[in-house]
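ok trying again, last paste got cut off:
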Amino acid sequence: QVQLVESGGGSVQAGGSLRLSCATSGRTFSRYAMGWFRQAPGKEREFVTLIRWSGSTSYAESVKGRFTISRDNAGNTVYLQMNSLKPEDTAVYYCAAGPYPLSAVTVPYWGQGTQVTVSS
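nice, full thing came through this time. structure:
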């Protein structure tokens, strides 16, 4: 059974940092992109960032320069380092895995989500 398990969410003040992790099991995600989406209350799930098997990355404009995605050498764990957090970053963050470019509509594998709350 394929599983993506997130950890590392929590509450932080504006300007603070958090690091999310996504551990995968059940299959090898080679050739897949992995990334993060987020969903705030009353809003649609939106793309945050992804990393391809090659190591190339993409970011939403709203997080460029503040968030960094990385993966371990085995490709089984993906990390999201979030710095200079803003209240508008508050959302449930979901780990995702699937064919590039990771559309929210077609992603086949999702984690359960982890809450990130940023207070002003």
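cool. The first strand starts at residue 3 and ends at 7. The two ends are 40 Å apart (CA to CA).
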